[in-house]
Amino acid sequence: LFLTAAIADGGMGMTDVRAGAILGLYTAGVYLAALPGGWIADRLLGQRNAVFYGGIVIALGHFSMASGSETMFFLGLLLIVIGTGLLKPNVSAIVGDLYGEDEAARRDAGFTIFYMGINLGAFIGPLVCGYLGENINWHLGFGAAGVGMVLGLIQYKMGESYFGDAGQLRRAAEETRSQASRVLLTGIAVTVALVAGAWLLQSNGTVSLAPENMANVTGIVIVAISILYFAFLMTLGGLDGNERKRIIYIFLLFVGAALFWAGFEQAASSLNLFAERLTDRVLFGWEMPASWFQSVNALFIILLAPIVGSLWVWMGKRNPPIPVKFGIGLVLLGSGFFVLAWGASFATPESPVSPMWLVVTYFLHTVGELALSPVGLSSVTKLSPDRLVGQMMGVWFMGTALGNLYAGLSAGQLEAMSPTGLFSTVALISVGAGLVFFVFQRPIKKLAPEVG
Fold this sequence. Notes:
This protein has helices spanning 16-32, 34-45, 47-65, 70-97, 104-136, 138-158, 174-203, 211-236, 241-264, 270-278, 294-315, 322-344, 356-383, 389-411, 419-439, 441-446, and strands at residues 282-283, 286-287. The chain is mostly helical. The chain has a two-stranded antiparallel sheet with strand order 1-2. Strand 1 and strand 2 form a beta hairpin. Helix 2 packs across helix 3 (47-65), helix 9 runs parallel beside helix 12 and helix 12 (322-344) runs antiparallel to helix 13 (356-383).
């Protein structure tokens, strides 16, 4: 919303294409940064320190965005990517580390509280930051997010006495830590050199570093790395026949998840713009901020997660297999986009449509998320060979990053396509992918019948 807002209204006045590409690169970066973030915590900082330092960097990022400078805005996005890379994978590890191996029930309850806390923040955040940003000043909204992060860091430190040894760095040999430090410094140096080289090529006109080009190149690189990694495992990974079948299973889920997130994560882009431009947000003479619709998904998660979780337990042996749950998730995602495409066919800037079109869409998307996302995470841990669990979780994050990247690129098509055309296209792709999972559920399940 800020990137596409007119300069006269305090925004950056960007096209939908450029704004979507920037958002896609930013959200993809968050998930890609989780890979080195977990590595740094395991070898150098420990999860507890990584979360704290990551939170500091995130707060600095939000305050940078609040400064009003365009350069500081983009520096802020970069800082948030780095900080979230340190925080996101490691805070979950701390929660798991709080419980012993014989405390499965308590661990599940702990993660439930943790997950509800995340979505409580996801519900409140857009209401506070969105109101301040849209109604008062965009940069005040960004600054409010920084204040929230600082408050979170304070309570995190105050509550450390409850952690015990959870999240502490395991005593590693000094030479191992020294080697990890050298690897980290080398990685930073290579990254700086690549950025400097790209900037020089941009300066002399050899290449264009426009966000649209960078996003497309990044997508190609992620796809290439993913395919090469799976090909390496299948040919030179030292896997037996059963393990190869499981890797094929994970690859199919990887593709399904990437397609799902490419649609679902348009909530922040195309659906956000639809809320702003084509939705009637006037209630009793007061216009609701468009960003408030970002809280709907979190609210539905809080309300529906216990119901969906209980449903799987209640079904017992009748519980659908993993491919069917993926098919359900993708079909529900597509159904939500069909609903919105229908609503968009009636909408014009002069005659916006009811907000219920978006609410119903978010409802269908949330149920689809609950059917696919937790199942996908759990399946990867069950299907991966023991020695490859960490790597496969990293690859799973790459699929999420890929989906986020293409969500931003797809949203940019709002300039070339009508909302009805864009949403219908996404719906057809999502439903089509879901039907493929339904049709081929039996051969997919046969790859690992003991998992489901």
